[in-house]
Recover the amino acids of this structure.
């Protein structure tokens, strides 16, 4: 039975979000120093378990029922089957196909591949490109390009209606969005147990960041769906992570750490989120989760789109501001995608991960570096951690 949850007081006061600067040398140095400081933060269970005050007006299209709200804040996530009609997501598939074409053309023009595999469909083409140029999927994952279909999905009316229930009338798009290209049997696409807070700065624990995970294919255990640790958010803490998992840039938590940090029973609390094309998973930055390996013969494509209150910090070390998606402060409001797209988050994070300015990144560089590598002990080195000099971090502990 869901636990009874108290409602958040209507007079809750939020801290103003400091204006974030562009990525320049001074900002990079300051942010890099901040990531190396170990701070003990007070647990924040109320951030993740308290239902905000709800409007007494008639619910808007797509908004959660009272039962769904209770389940989301009690269990830490919510699977919503058939949230979208498939025709609403078909343009997203087209946008992904355009991105694959762009990467294929770039590799071809750069002399990295001889065959663009233009006859292959969306669910097989990237796998073929990956065989010809290992790391192609990483190049696509690193890309900050936002096709119009992605923008339309991020600012979808019914999704923003849900966000109003969770965040209030002012809704921003968090800059930590991702296109997930989970090719079969590819370690770089297998994300181990973690909390999203582990990739942000420590203070982000006190900022509520809802995520909408939207696959554009049926998802199941075979092709690598999500698993959630039910109730793992209730203590409002970030467990101890280590870096990096296998040959990836991912942080991870051990089973022992999850059982200790969250009082979890992995034999009972792990939930597999499988559903048909058109559904989604709603979760937050505090819930432990992972994606399973893809043992199918197709690519499992998905988008993670994050949201926040615009007056709250994003936790991305000041490298990029959120994009305001909905507001009552302006009449005839129009989303300012142009300014949002001026900063490349991936490149900016790589700058923060170093103590000094670095040269421009090679377009064909298949490594990924970020400031989370300073926050957690690096117990396994690989080509991704090799981009950080020992002098840049204080957490390098073991050479695998």
């Amino acid at each position: 039975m869901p636990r009874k949850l108290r409602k958040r007081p209507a007079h809750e006061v939020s801290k103003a979000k400091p204006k974030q600067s562009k990525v320049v040398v001074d900002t990079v140095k300051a942010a890099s120093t901040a990531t190396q400081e170990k701070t003990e933060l007070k647990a924040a269970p109320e951030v993740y378990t308290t239902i905000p005050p709800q409007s007494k007006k008639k619910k808007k299209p797509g908004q959660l029922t009272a039962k769904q709200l209770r389940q989301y804040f009690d269990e830490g996530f919510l699977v919503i089957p058939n949230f979208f009609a498939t025709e609403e997501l078909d343009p997203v598939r087209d946008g992904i196909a355009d991105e694959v074409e762009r990467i294929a053309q770039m590799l071809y023009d750069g002399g990295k591949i001889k065959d663009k595999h233009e006859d292959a469909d969306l669910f097989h083409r990237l796998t073929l490109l990956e065989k010809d140029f290992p790391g192609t999927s990483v190049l696509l994952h690193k890309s900050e390009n936002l096709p119009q279909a992605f923008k339309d999905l991020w600012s979808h009316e019914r999704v923003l209606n849900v966000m109003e229930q969770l965040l209030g009338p002012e809704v921003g798009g968090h800059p930590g969005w991702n296109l997930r290209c989970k090719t079969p049997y590819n370690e770089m696409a297998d994300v181990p147990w973690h909390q999203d807070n582990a990739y942000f700065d420590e203070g982000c624990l006190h900022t509520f960041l809802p995520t909408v995970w939207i696959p554009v294919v049926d998802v199941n255990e075979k092709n690598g769906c999500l698993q959630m640790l039910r109730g793992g958010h209730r203590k409002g803490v970030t467990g101890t992570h280590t870096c990096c998992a296998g040959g990836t840039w991912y942080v991870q938590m051990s089973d022992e750490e999850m059982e200790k940090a969250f009082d979890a029973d992995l034999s009972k609390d792990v939930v597999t989120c499988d559903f048909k094309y058109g559904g989604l998973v709603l979760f937050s930055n505090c819930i432990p989760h992972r994606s399973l390996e893809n043992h199918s013969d197709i690519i499992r494509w998905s988008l993670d789109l994050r949201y926040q209150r615009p007056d709250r910090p994003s936790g991305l070390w000041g490298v990029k501001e959120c994009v305001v998606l909905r507001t009552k402060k302006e009449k005839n409001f129009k989303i300012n995608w142009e300014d949002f797209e001026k900063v490349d988050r991936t490149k900016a994070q790589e700058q923060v991960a170093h103590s000094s300015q670095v040269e421009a990144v090679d377009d064909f560089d298949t490594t990924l570096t970020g400031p989370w590598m300073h926050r957690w002990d690096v117990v396994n080195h690989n080509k991704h951690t090799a981009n950080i000099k020992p002098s840049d971090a204080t957490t390098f502990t073991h050479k695998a």
Remarks:
- Confidence is low (pLDDT under 50) at residues 1-38, 393-400.
- The longest strand covers residues 300-308.
- The longest helix spans residues 86-109.
- DSSP finds 13 helices and 13 strands in the chain.
